[in-house]
Specification:
Blueprint lengths: L12 E2 L12 E7 L3 E8 L2 E2 L5 E3 L6 E2 L4 E4 L2 E3 L3 E3 L2 E2 L29 E2 L1 H9 L4 E2 L2 H5 L24 H19 L9 E6 L5 H13 L6 E4 H12 L4 H4 L5 E7 L4 E9 L10 E7 L7 H17 L7 H18 L7 E6 L11 E6 H12 L17 E2 L2 E2 L6 H11 L1 H8 L1 H4 L10 E5 L6 H15 L4 E3 L7 H13 L10 E2 L5 E5 L8 E6 L7 E4 L5 E5 L2 E4 L1 E4 L10 E3 L4 E4 L12 E4 L3 E4 L9 E11 L5 E7 L6 E6 L11 E2 L19 H12 L8 H5 L1 H9 L7 H13 L8 H15 L8 H9 L12 H14 L5 H15 L4 H6 L6 H9 L6 H15 L8 H8 L15 H12 L9 H9 L11 H13 L4 H8 L6 H8 L20
Parallel strand pairs: 2-13, 13-14, 15-22, 17-24, 22-23, 29-38, 32-33
Antiparallel strand pairs: 1-27, 2-3, 3-6, 3-9, 4-5, 7-8, 10-11, 10-12, 15-16, 16-17, 18-19, 20-21, 25-26, 25-30, 26-31, 27-35, 28-35, 29-34, 30-33, 34-37, 35-36, 36-37
C-alpha cells in the first residue's frame, strides 16, 4: 500500500443522518446489556390521530419493563432486573413443565439438549450445581485474546456440558428481553421500536461491532449505541430537567465513574457557560473517556472468594474451577449483605458438598464486615496520593480465563486517567485548574453509577479520595438507582436527540470519544500511523483523506490495521504519529497507561474484498480512505476509487481471534498489497542480499553449482551478520525475495532444500509483521503441491520445518489438514521404516510440527498427545519427543486460544509419566514437565497445587534454570531463553511475544 501526502488539509463532509425510526415506532426503548443484569426502559411517544391532533399522548415518564423470568421451578416473576446469566442443565435435571415461560422456549442444541435457563433461577441453580453457569459474557465479549464467536462458555466446564460463545450468550439475553417485551406489547413488537443499546465507553470497535451482531442475532437489527456513562448522566439530566442548569451552576467539570460488574468506565464532561448570556443553559461536552478496564464488582467477589477459599481448603489445594465459581456466587451475596448500611457484623459462606454428600459434605467460611471493608473498600478504593499510578506487575489475575488488571485499585487507575486528560481538564476548570499547573486537575462534580456504588462505604470512599486530591469538597450528583440509570438514560438520550425534551437542548455533545489511526508500516518497531478520524468529530461526519492515496489490489482480500487513542492531544486528520514514541500499545484489557505519552489501543483489523474487473483475476486500483463515526455509534471506514468515486467499498471489522486468518492480506506498510519490499531498506546491504538470492533462484546467465547453492545461507550471513540477529523487517524482506522466485526452487534437490530452509526461517513464527497473513495465504498454496524431490529425506525434514515455523499464522482448517497428513505418515512408523523410507526419515520433524499445531480442536490435540506418550513407551524413541509432549500439554499456548488447551486431568496423567523419568538421563523431560505444570492463573487450566509444587521441587533438585520453577509457581511470562525452547528456536529480534493466545506486536 503506498501513501502520499501534500500540505493540504482534509475536509470533512456531513453524511445524511441515519433515518428516523419507523413510523410504527410507538416507544423509545433503552437496553442496558450489563455484565451482571440486563435492564429495559421505555417511554411512549405521542401518537397522531387521523386528520391531525393527538390520539394518544406520551406521558413523558420513563418506565422499566418487568422482565418475565423463572425464579423457581415452574414459578415466573417479572422484576425489572434480568440477571445476565445462563444455566445449562443436564438431561433430566429439570422437568420441562418447570421451565415454561409466557412464550415458547427455543431449543438451541437440538431436541436432546434441555433449554438453557436465563435470569434469577439460573443464578440460583448455578450457585448449587457448579460448572454449568455462564456468567460475565460481556467481559468475554471485550476479551480479544480468544475467539469470541467460539463455543467456550461455561469456561472450564466438563465435556458433557453444552457450550456457547460469548456472542451467542449476549444475544440470548437480548432475545429473552425481546420475548418479554413482545409478550407484554403484543401489537408493538420490540424490533419495530426506536431502540438504544448501551455499551461501555471504553469498548473498542471490535466489541461494539460484536454487540451489534448480538443484537442482530436476537432479532434486533435496527438500533443505536450509546456509551454507558453518557447514558447515566442523561438519566440525571432527565430527572433534573426542570432545574438542571441551576444544579450545575457551580460545576465546571463532571466525572462520571461507572463501576459495574465487569468494567470501570470513566468519562469527563465539561460544563461551559456563555459569558455573554448568563441566562443561557450551559453547554455539556464530553472531553475524555478511559481505556478499557476489566475491573468491577466481579473482581471484588473474586477477592472475597480467594479469602474464603483459604479457610475452606484449610491451606490445601485450590478448589476446582466449577466449585470456585459456586463460591464466587456465594461471596457476592455476602459482600452485598455485609456492606449494606444495616448489615450484620459477620456472615457464613457455605459451599455445598457434591453428589450424595450435597448437604453433609458442605463446608463453611466466615466473612466479617471488617474483612470485607479491608479487602473490598481498602483494596479497590484505597486512600492514596494523587501522584500514585497503577502498579505494574509481571502479570495480572487470570480467573475463569479472563485477564484482569494487575492492580485492582480503582483510585490509582482514576489518577492515571485524570493525568492523561490533564490539559483538557485544566481548561474546563478555568482559574481553578490553572492555580497549580503541576497538580492533578480534579473534577469539581461527581456522578457515581453502577451496582457497586449501592454500597455506601464504596461511594463515600471514592468521594473522600477525590475531595482529598482536590483540597475541597466534591459535589455529588444524586443517583437514585444506579442499577437502572443506564437503561433509563438511554431512553432520555434518544428523547433529547429527537428534540422531545426542550429543557435539555442537545444534551451531552462531544463527538467521537477517541482518535483513530491507520498503521502505515512497522519498519522500525511499531512504525507510523496516520490519523483518519480525530477525537471529537461529530457523529455522522465523514472525514475523507483526500490528499492520501493508497494502492490496493483488486481480486483479493485486503486488510488495514487501526489503533485508537483517548488522549486529549489535538490531532487532525492526516497527521502522522510515531508509534514508537508512544506508550506501549495494548489490547484494551489492562490499565490506564502512563500519562506522559499517548497510549494506543490496537483494534481488530478491518478488511474487505475488492472485486476484480470482469474477466480479470487481479488488478490494481488507487483509492482514498474515509472514516465516519456513524449515528449508530460505531466507526465506519470506506475506500473509494480515485478515478471513479462511485466505486466505493465498506471495510468491515474482522472479529475472530487470531492473527493469521487465511485468505487475507495485511495491507500495512508503504507497499502494494501482495508486493513486498518496504520503502526504506531494513538493512544497508539488503540489495546485495536480494542479488545473492537472485543468483541462486533467478535466471542468471551462468548457473551456480551445487556447492554455491548449499552455501547461500552462509553467504547471506557473511553479508548481513549472523542470522539470529536478522531483524523482523529484514527477515520478511528476504522471504518476499524468496517467494518471488519460488517457481525456481525445484531446479535441484539442493535448490529445494535451501529454499525451504530459508523461507521457513524468514517467515517464522508466521505472524507479527505487516503482510504476514498475505504471506501465509501465498505459501499455503504449496502444501498440496508437496516437494519435488521425494526421495530426499533432508528435503522432507525442511518441508515439515517450514510448516512448523509458519504454524502461528495458519488457521484451524489449515492446521487440521496438516495434522491429517501427518497422521497418515506417522500411524505405522517404526525404526525399520525410518531407515528406508525418506518420509519416515523425517519422523522427528513431523512430531515437532504436530506439537505446535495449537489451533486444532482440543480433542485432536488430546489424541495427538496420547499417541506421542504411547510412542515414548517404546524402546529407542528419541528423547526429544518428550519436548513435543510438553508442548501439546502446555498450560499456556504460544499463539492459540486458551480454549484449545488440553484438559488438566489428562495433562496430569502425562506429567506423571514425566515425573517417573530420570531427568538427568532424559534432558528434555524437565522442560516438558515445566510446560505442562506451568501456572497460567486460570484454575480451569492449572494443575493441582500439590502436583505443581512437586514439579517445582524436582526442578530445583535437578538444578534446572531458576525461571522454570518460577513458571510453575507463578503466572509469569516466558523469558527469551524459554521462548526459544518453546518454539524450538529463537524468535526474530524485535518481536515481543505476549503468549496465551494474544498475537505478538512488533516492538
Amino acid at each position: 500500500m503506498s501513501a502520499g501526502r501534500s500540505n493540504s488539509t482534509c475536509a470533512a463532509t456531513h453524511l445524511p443522518p441515519t433515518p428516523e425510526p419507523a413510523v410504527s415506532a410507538r416507544y423509545t426503548v433503552g437496553i442496558d446489556l450489563g455484565t451482571s443484569h440486563t435492564v429495559v426502559a421505555y417511554a411512549a411517544h405521542a401518537v397522531a390521530a387521523e386528520g391531525g391532533g393527538v390520539a394518544e399522548a406520551g406521558d413523558g415518564a420513563i418506565h422499566l419493563l418487568p422482565i418475565a423470568q423463572l425464579v423457581a421451578p415452574g414459578e415466573v416473576a417479572a422484576p425489572a432486573l434480568l440477571p445476565s446469566v445462563r444455566y445449562h442443565p443436564a438431561p433430566g435435571e429439570l422437568a420441562a413443565a418447570d421451565l415454561q415461560l409466557p412464550w415458547p422456549v427455543a431449543l438451541e442444541g437440538g431436541a436432546d439438549t434441555p433449554p438453557a435457563v436465563i435470569g434469577r433461577y439460573a443464578r440460583d441453580l448455578g450457585s448449587q450445581a457448579p460448572g454449568r453457569l455462564v456468567a460475565s459474557a460481556k467481559s468475554w465479549l471485550s476479551h480479544p485474546g480468544v475467539d469470541r464467536t467460539a463455543a467456550i462458555l461455561p469456561w472450564g466446564a466438563a465435556d458433557e456440558v453444552p457450550k456457547i460463545s460469548p456472542l451467542q450468550a449476549s444475544a440470548s439475553y437480548l432475545a429473552h428481553a425481546r420475548a418479554a417485551w413482545n409478550a407484554r406489547f403484543v401489537h408493538d413488537p420490540l424490533e419495530q421500536q426506536d431502540i438504544v443499546l448501551t455499551v461501555p465507553a471504553s469498548f473498542d470497535e471490535g466489541a461494539r461491532a460484536l454487540t451489534l451482531e448480538a443484537a442482530r442475532l436476537a432479532g434486533l437489527p435496527r438500533l443505536r449505541l450509546i456509551e454507558e456513562p453518557q447514558a447515566a448522566f442523561h438519566d440525571w439530566l432527565y430527572r433534573e430537567r426542570h432545574h438542571w442548569a441551576a444544579a450545575l451552576a457551580q460545576a465546571r467539570l463532571v466525572l462520571v465513574c461507572d463501576v459495574g460488574g465487569g468494567t470501570t468506565d470513566l468519562t469527563l464532561i465539561r460544563v461551559e457557560r456563555d459569558a455573554s448570556d448568563p441566562a443561557a443553559p450551559p453547554v455539556l461536552t464530553r472531553i475524555g473517556v478511559g481505556d478499557h478496564l476489566m475491573l468491577g464488582g466481579d473482581n471484588m467477589d473474586l477477592a472475597l472468594a480467594h479469602r474464603a477459599e483459604r479457610e475452606l481448603a484449610g491451606g490445601g489445594d485450590r478448589l476446582p474451577a466449577a466449585r470456585f465459581a459456586q463460591l464466587v456466587q456465594r461471596c457476592r451475596a455476602a459482600k452485598e449483605l455485609l456492606l449494606a448500611p444495616d448489615g450484620p457484623e459477620r456472615t457464613s459462606v457455605t459451599l455445598l458438598g457434591a453428589g450424595a454428600r450435597l448437604v453433609g459434605g458442605g463446608r463453611s467460611a466466615t466473612l466479617t464486615r471488617a474483612e470485607v471493608q479491608q479487602l473490598v473498600v481498602d483494596g479497590f478504593v484505597p486512600q492514596q496520593a494523587a501522584s500514585e499510578r497503577p502498579r505494574r506487575r509481571s502479570s495480572g489475575l487470570v480467573e475463569f480465563g479472563l485477564p484482569y488488571p494487575a492492580d485492582p485499585a480503582i483510585t490509582r487507575h482514576l489518577a492515571a486517567f485524570l493525568a492523561r486528560h490533564a490539559a483538557a481538564a485544566r481548561t474546563a476548570l478555568g482559574s481553578e485548574g490553572a492555580e497549580n499547573a503541576d497538580a492533578l486537575p480534579v473534577p469539581d462534580t461527581l456522578l457515581l453509577n453502577g451496582g457497586v456504588f449501592r454500597a455506601p462505604a464504596l461511594a463515600d470512599r471514592l468521594e473522600s479520595v477525590l475531595a482529598r486530591w482536590r483540597g475541597a469538597p466534591v459535589r455529588v450528583l444524586h443517583n437514585a438507582d444506579p442499577d437502572v440509570a443506564v437503561a433509563r438514560g438511554a431512553v432520555a438520550y434518544a428523547l433529547v436527540r429527537a428534540a422531545r425534551v426542550p429543557e435539555l437542548a442537545r444534551g451531552v455533545g462531544g463527538g467521537a470519544a477517541r482518535s483513530y489511526f491507520l498503521v502505515l508500516d512497522g519498519r522500525h518497531g511499531q512504525g507510523r500511523a496516520l490519523c483518519v478520524l480525530p477525537r471529537g468529530t461529530d457523529t455522522g461526519t465523514e472525514v475523507p483523506l483526500a490528499q492520501h492515496h493508497f494502492a490496493l489490489r483488486l481480486g483479493q482480500a485486503v486488510r488495514f490495521h487501526l489503533v485508537a487513542s483517548a488522549d486529549d492531544r489535538p490531532w487532525h486528520a492526516g497527521d502522522l504519529v510515531d508509534l514508537d514514541a508512544a506508550a506501549p500499545t495494548g489490547t484494551g484489557t489492562g490499565t490506564e497507561a502512563d500519562a506522559d505519552a499517548p497510549a494506543f489501543v490496537r483494534l481488530p483489523p478491518i478488511e474487505t474484498v475488492l472485486p476484480a474487473p470482469e474477466g480479470r483475476r487481479r488488478a490494481d486500483v488507487t483509492v482514498q480512505l474515509s472514516a465516519t463515526m456513524t449515528e449508530v455509534g460505531t466507526l465506519e471506514m470506506h475506500c473509494a476509487s480515485v478515478s471513479d468515486p462511485a466505486q466505493r467499498w465498506l471495510l468491515a471489522f474482522q472479529l475472530r481471534s487470531g492473527a493469521g486468518d487465511p485468505g487475507t492480506s495485511d495491507t500495512l506498510g508503504d507497499t502494494g498489497a501482495g508486493t513486498a519490499l518496504p520503502d526504506a531498506a531494513p538493512h544497508q546491504r539488503v540489495a546485495e542480499a536480494v542479488a545473492l538470492i537472485e543468483r541462486i533462484f533467478g535466471t542468471p546467465a551462468d548457473k551456480p553449482d551445487a556447492r554455491e547453492v548449499r552455501q547461500l545461507r552462509s553467504a547471506l550471513e557473511r553479508l548481513l551478520g549472523a542470522r539470529e540477529t536478522w531483524s523482523l523487517p529484514l527477515l520478511r524482506t528476504l522471504f518476499d525475495a524468496l517467494w518471488a522466485r519460488a517457481r525456481r526452487r525445484r531446479r535441484s534437490a539442493e535448490h529445494e532444500r535451501v529454499w525451504l530452509n530459508l523461507a521457513g526461517y524468514c517467515l517464522r513464527p508466521g505472524l507479527g509483521a505487516p503482510l504476514d497473513a498475505w504471506r501465509i495465504e501465498q505459501v499455503w498454496e504449496l502444501f498440496d503441491q508437496g516437494i519435488q524431490y521425494t526421495a530426499e529425506s533432508r528435503n522432507w525434514s525442511e518441508w515439515w520445518t517450514l510448516w512448523r515455523r509458519a504454524a502461528g499464522g495458519l488457521g484451524e482448517a489449515q492446521q487440521l489438514h496438516i495434522l491429517e497428513t501427518l497422521a497418515g505418515h506417522l500411524e505405522d512408523c517404526d525404526a525399520g521404516k525410518r531407515a528406508k523410507d525418506p518420509v519416515q526419515g523425517s519422523y522427528d520433524d513431523m512430531v515437532r510440527l504436530a506439537a505446535l499445531l495449537e489451533q486444532v480442536p482440543v480433542a485432536h490435540r488430546s489424541d495427538t498427545g496420547r499417541w506421542v506418550l504411547e510412542r515414548l513407551q517404546r524402546p529407542g524413541e528419541n528423547p526429544q519427543t518428550w519436548w513435543a509432549l510438553g508442548r501439546i500439554g502446555a498450560r499456556v499456548p504460544l499463539y492459540g486460544s486458551a480454549h484449545t488447551v488440553v484438559p488438566a486431568d489428562l495433562a496430569s496423567e502425562w506429567l506423571a509419566a514425566l515425573l517417573a523419568l530420570d531427568w538427568k538421563a532424559v534432558e528434555p523431560a524437565a522442560f516438558a514437565a515445566t510446560q505442562i505444570a506451568r501456572m497460567s492463573g486460570d484454575r480451569a487450566r492449572d494443575l493441582p497445587a500439590a502436583l505443581r509444587e512437586a514439579v517445582a521441587q524436582r526442578l530445583v533438585a535437578a538444578r534446572a534454570p531458576h525461571s522454570w520453577a518460577t513458571l510453575v509457581r507463578e503466572a509469569v511470562q516466558l523469558d527469551e531463553a524459554d521462548q526459544r525452547r518453546s518454539f524450538g528456536e529463537a524468535l526474530p529480534p524485535g518481536l515481543t511475544w505476549l503468549g496465551g493466545g494474544a498475537a505478538p506486536p512488533a516492538a
